Amino acid sequence: MPGAVKKRTRTSETKKSQHIRNDDLKLILLGNLRYFHDDPYSISLNYYLVAQGSYYGGKASYVKGGSQQLSNALVSVIEENGGTVKLNSLAVEIIFKNDQPSGVRYESVKGKTKEEFSDYAGVIIVNASVPALAEKLLPGNHGIELSEKIKYIKIGATLLTVYFGFSKSLREVGNRYYSTFVFDPAIKTQKDILQNNHSGFETRSFTLVDYSQLDSGLATGGKGVGAVCCIDYASDWEGMDRKFYLKKKDHVAETIVARCEKLIPGFRNALEFVEVGTPLTVNHYTLNPTGAVYGFAQNPGKPTDYLNALPESIYVASAWGKFGGGFSGSIYSGFMTALDVLRKNRTSNRSN
Description:
The chain is an alpha+beta fold. The protein folds into 2 domains: 67-153 and 294-351, FAD/NAD(P)-binding domain; 158-293. The chain is 39% helix and 18% strand. It has helices at 2-5, 12-19, 23-29, 45-58, 67-80, 130-137, 140-150, 170-173, 191-197, 242-263, 267-270, 279-286, 326-351; strands at 89-97, 100-108, 116-120, 124-126, 158-166, 179-182, 206-210, 224-232, 271-277, 314-316. Strand 1 (89-97) and strand 2 form a beta hairpin.
């Protein structure tokens, strides 16, 4: 890291080529690239080192019971400290008074009748995507200024996920691994990775995660839960009518199941439930443009000065902030944002 910090424009690929000659070893080290990005030739070396260091050092720790348990725990902390969490609510505008942010206008999205509400605060922390903040939430020149700052920053990778429910655990079927990273044999070097991410699902690389390999708390009664994840692109799913969209999802599910069966004989017989989440699914539930799960692409030299274009008292704490996406990046962003707010309040109080 110390050497990499001085060279923000370097990519992961350039560093590997400098020190590693064996193409298979390079691919092994990039097995989990889709957890951060889609192309080794355009991911920042700094970001790759931090992300991989966290992955190796943290041993990919898992929240027992799934990520919803983490959300529940955070809700408890908020409520214990006098806060309120409002579900099924969509923020539609940040309210300004005397050209200063003063509150948020939001509407209920449950039921047929939409109700509009407003709440007010001295500090507004945004976890919506930065493009949505610029285009929909910030009024007038504030939104225009932020849009100008981000117009050349590329949006990051999107994912397709196939969710599985099993009548028995894959451990019983014979699987021995928590996560398995599968490269198609056609991938010989790093140069083949991006092209493969655009290939058909018969050959596209994927990751299979088997939650029965740990005490996940996701399934009871001897059953099991698993998932396959691969890089995908919203553009490959847009513009279809509903019938064709569902037919394509079924085809993807069958293709992935067939590949998993070859990997783990008995996989299909243990299968009880399959559901496919596309980039459009992610966009529907999170409103991230193109279903981007990692925020902005972590390209070399990616600017963060767009955060300086935010009006005073507005902060970004999400995958779209300074530290990027994933659990660690988003949580660290929230933690650092909290410190920034507290530090500013202390400074303000001393001044007063």
